[in-house]
Amino acid sequence: MATGGPADLTGLPPVDRALPAPRLALGGLRVPALALVTATVALLALAEVGLVLSQPAPGPRWALVLVPAVAGVYLVAGAVAWQRRPGNRTGPLIVAGAVVWVIAGAVNTTAAPLVAAGLIAATVPFAVVVHLLHGFPSGRLRGWRSVGIVAAGYVVCVLMQAPLYLFGEGPATLLQIADRPDLADAGRWAQWAVGSCVMAATAILLERRRRAMAPARRHGMAPLLAYGIGAVLFVPISGQVAVVASASPDAVLALVVAQLAVLAGVPVAFLAALRRGGFPRTTGLANLATWLGTAPADRVDVAARLADALGDPSVQVAFWLPDPGVHVDLDGRPVALPPPGSERGIAAVRVGGRRVGAIVYDARLLGEPAEVAAAAGVVALAFDHLRLTAELRASRVRIVEAADGERRRIARDLHDGLQAQLVLLAMEADRLGDEADALRGGLRTAIGELRELAQGVMPAVLTERGLGEAVEELAARLPLAVRCDVEPLDPRPPAAVESTAYFVVSEALANTLKHADAGAVRVAVAARGDALVVEVSDDGAGGARPGGGTGLRCIAARVEALGGRLAVDRAPGRGTRVHAELPCGW
Amino acid sequence: MRVVIGEDDALMREGVGLVLRRHGFEVAESAADGGDLVRKARAHQPDVVIADIRMPPTGTDEGLRAALDIRASHPRIAIVVLSQHVQQRYAAELLETAAGGGEVGYLLKQRVADGATFCADVRRVGAGASVLDPEVVALMLGRMRRDPLGRLTPRQREVLALMAEGRSNTGIAKALVLTPKAVAKHVAHIYEQLGLQPDDDEHRRVLAVVRYLTG
Questions:
Q1: Residue of A541, A483, A523, A534 whose CA lies nearest to B143
Q2: Cβ neighbours of residue A7 under 8 Å, at least 6 residues apart?
Q3: Is B198 on the interface with A (CB under 8 A)?
Q4: Is the peptide bond prior to B154 cis by the omega test (within 30 degrees of 0)?
Q5: What phi, psi does B52 have (nearest 5°)?
Q6: What is the pTM of this model?
Q7: Taking residues A88-92, what's their average pLDDT?
Q8: What's the ipTM?
């Protein structure tokens, strides 16, 4: 597709083809490296095919090209994985596997040094598979156990292979120092024993890791791990069985073909797992930059775009508010960053050395922190812009919280200070004679009014027992039949949400009492998803009322400050319905 | 009658102590927070514990919780809870612990100012009755009037209200200018309306009140 062509008519940024995106990925080095390596390995494999075909062979000639063919499968799968996920080491590792296969395949040539190299590398492909299994999905080894097991795998395949070629039977090679079939046999059994331990340890560790994964990821893991482990075990076991059973040459050939097919399936399985489900294709940082340049700046879904660019659907963003010293989401709600050392990685986002936020990603999936850091650099300015929005939203919530705090303090002061003093005065008055009756009566009234005042400012029961009991007490004091359906809320919503919901109910009930001439009122409070839904409905007159609803407008502002909304439905003859939704996922 | 007082405000603590002593109570000790109150009540085993509902450390309903604690380990200690504010739910929770037979009171704090009435209430609780603040009773009666299912006659409501305030049948008879026999008949009708089985009389008096409080 040509840029500037018909695609521009859509008004969308030509994201996909506008730039040779991968070239910019991480310093511009990876893509040329990928091309160079792929071409070199492909040439080597082809050279090997040429070599083995140019010589006389005992069996069918096509059998000779099987090993270079497997190398080719590794090369293609590895190159695709590498190109799609430049920050993931699985691709390069599979390509390295292709190199190992080319070397192992050299055993079928006639040149003595190549044969020697082939003998040495004969079992290394197994170690590469073990390495791939432990590294999945990022391609990096995590934890000393994995490092140890993979290292042991390489030791088994490289060092413990030595007795086989040093003392092996058959035609003399460059490497053979003695024709000692007994030593070679002992070496083979030792290699087999230690190799089995490596595979058992691998199986246990990976199963444990699989269980710890998020269910969505875990789903695709089992077939891959089972296949990888099965492949590594199947090949040596079937080989041993063939030797013990002294199979016919035809049967041996069939077995070799089967073994190679199973091993060739390994990189394909890894590639498929990388691309499937939780491991989608990355769109690259250049596309991210293009998008940032054209997207509307107000409310942009930077997390989703980062997820696309990095190929990690679990990406989350957090904005740093230096004043309260917390991270918040786009709605201004505080979010906790994962602890260091967990499976979630954190990349700081900075503008000119100033901290503006963090990108939280799957550290197992994106093994290369530098890649996320590069993405953080690309989005930093947009991030800072969004941070201001988040900060504004957070500050509106804080204003509501501060107002509530003040109300609580005033109510407490009225109770503990003024009311206590009045009660003490009344106790003094109690000791006076009958002539103080009026004084006593006045004090009683004053105490009663003060009590009602404090209750209206912030009812103690709301703080102490929560929304349900506060609404019930409120309803009990009204000269109206109020039906309360308040769902038990566990855990309790944040204090600002509770008090706002309470004021919605109290204002709506007060309006009903004043204007509606209603016979029955219903209050319903329920959690719906991430929000608290409050509804007060009556069977009164409904309809517009002159000068009514100023109180509700104040409450509505409060609801909106918390990111919620309040609607009043006042159709004439159908009563009044006040409906508020308050997000409380914080 | 021996009492232990739980009240965090020092002046108020002194004041309550003074009023009680003036009316012939022995104040064994005073406590300033919930934990201290529980300890001192257990140590002195008074006839009555008088607790402010709001005390440190939480400053919420610490006093009520301390009272419930004391009830649980020493059911024979009578409890009077003082509150700046009447809450039906608190009253109901307190009454529900009175299954052993009365011995709880729930009063507004300002009632302390009327020393004679307050001390009479405390004495009644100490003697095994349950006493509710007239304001709680008023709330309750308000609800009964609005309750379309309220099957009690106005006279029965009056009797129930006085029961809630901790009056005996004789006391109710005196207040309503009825014969004790007529009161007993009303009380029996109330039990019947509320579906309470005729067993322990004191217990049922409390249950009748709880039934209406918890609605």
A1: A483
A2: A1, A14
A3: no
A4: no
A5: -70, 135
A6: 0.60
A7: 82
A8: 0.78
